[in-house]
Amino acid sequence: MTTLKARTAARVRKIEEAPGTPLHIRVRDEIRRKVEVGELIDGDGRLMTEAELTKFFGVSRITIRSAIRPLVEEGMFDRERGKGTYLRSNRPENWVGQLMGFSETIRDAGYVAGARILRKGMTNAHDDDVRDKVRERAVWELRRLRLADDTPIAIEHAFYPPDIGLELESRDLISIIMYRVMENDLGFAIKEANQTIGATLADNDSAKLLGVKPGSPLLSIERLTMSSDDRPLEFLRAVYLPEYFRLSINLTRRRT
User: Fold this and answer.
1) Domains, the chain, ranges and CATH?
2) How many CB atoms sit inside 10 A of residue 76's CB?
3) Which of 237, 254, 243, 146 is nearest to 195 (CA)?
């Protein structure tokens, strides 16, 4: 018969099989994976306590707290003071996630975010969709090859109103955390973003930049970010290597 001590040791060994990734990130990913299949939570969706998770994974309470915090911030869990941490139940047509830029997402995953500037500056050589979304005839564009630990994994092409673009022009566009700059430095209150996710195939240009063969599958994203006063702040088009990104949404079936 397998003892609790042996099962805990096995879980610790499994978590430690991912060298180079911080421990709290490995624990976080394991919590997410187990909760998605109904483990670690009770019938009411209440997550194990920090003390219980500490024993379950055989790690410190600080590690557990560091693992749970981003899951709360991204909307997977709600914390109720004095009651515990509960799995958030979302209606399938109204999923809410946390708005994060590339650098925030990549750093949260345990990589070092980087970029190579491919093009930047004012332009009016854009299509009607960009003009309609940004509500400007001329826009400031920023096209970057995005890196994770110096590996190319995405190409982002963003469009901004001229006044925002000119503010960004003089900043470090390699390591910039865009939404933090907009909020903290430029004083914009970001209200929401509408994001569409699809699939596409790599053309010759994107294939060369990302180091894949033309025709390879890529994840495509379009995102329009709006301010609290309904002003477009950023319109982003991007393609990503699919192995670096995973979309996870909790769905519930409406009962009548």
Assistant:
1) 4-87 (1.10.10.10), 102-244 (3.40.1410.10)
2) 23
3) 237
CB-side exposure of 242: number of CA atoms within 13 Å? 11
**Start-to-end CA span in the chain (Å):** 44
pLDDT bracket for residue 20 (50, 70, 90): low
Contact 88, 75 (CB under 8 A): yes
Buried b (16+ CB within 10 A) or exposed e, 23-40: bbbbbbbbbbeebeeeeb
Tens digit of pLDDT for each residue in 55-89? 999 999 999 999 898 888 777 788 887 788 888 75
Q: How far apart are CA 64 and CA 70, in angstroms?
A: 11
pTM given for the model:
0.59
Name the β-bridge partners of 147.
114, 152
Block residue for tokens 């879980």: 11
